[in-house]
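Marked as duplicate of an earlier ticket. Keeping the data here for the record.
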Amino acid sequence: MLIKFSEKDNIFDSKPSIDDEVQFNLLQLIRESKSPSLFTNKNKSIIIGQFI
């Protein structure tokens, strides 16, 4: 089950995101867009993003 990503979520401030900044770059761009479409699973082990 996927959950709508919350703006308050700090996944992008976590160690994996910081350590692999280049790999997370596209998701950061989606997150900062005007109408981001980001989803995560319950334990936040995946993030799915798409520009709309």
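See parent ticket for discussion. The two ends are 21 Å apart (CA to CA).
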